[in-house]
C-alpha cells in the first residue's frame, strides 16, 4: 500500500499528533518548559509552511486544470 505523503503532510490531525508525540518525548527526557515551547513553536511553524505550500500547489493545479478545459 502506497502512502499518500502529500495528503498526510497537509493533515492538521497528523501535525497535532506529531506535536503531541514530540512534546511527550521532551517531557520524558526532562526538557524545560521553555525548551518544549520553543520546539513546539518550530514544529508548528514548519507544519504551517508545509500545509500552505501543498494547499497553494493544489489550488494552482486546479486553476490550470480549469484553464485547459476552457
From TrEMBL:
Transmembrane segments: 12-30, 36-54
Keywords annotated in UniProt: Membrane, Transmembrane, Transmembrane helix
Protein's UniProt keywords contain Transmembrane helix: yes
Stated name of the protein: Uncharacterized protein
Origin species: Acetoanaerobium sticklandii (strain ATCC 12662 / DSM 519 / JCM 1433 / CCUG 9281 / NCIMB 10654 / HF)
Phylogenetic placement of the source organism: Bacteria, Bacillati, Bacillota, Clostridia, Peptostreptococcales
Amino acid at each position: 500500500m502506497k502512502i499518500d505523503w502529500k495528503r498526510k503532510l497537509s493533515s492538521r490531525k497528523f501535525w497535532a499528533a506529531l506535536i503531541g508525540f514530540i512534546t511527550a518525548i521532551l517531557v520524558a527526557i526532562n526538557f524545560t518548559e521553555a525548551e518544549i515551547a520553543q520546539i513546539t513553536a518550530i514544529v508548528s511553524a514548519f507544519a504551517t509552511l508545509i500545509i500552505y505550500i501543498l494547499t497553494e500547489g493544489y489550488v494552482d493545479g486546479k486553476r490550470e486544470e480549469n484553464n485547459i478545459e476552457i
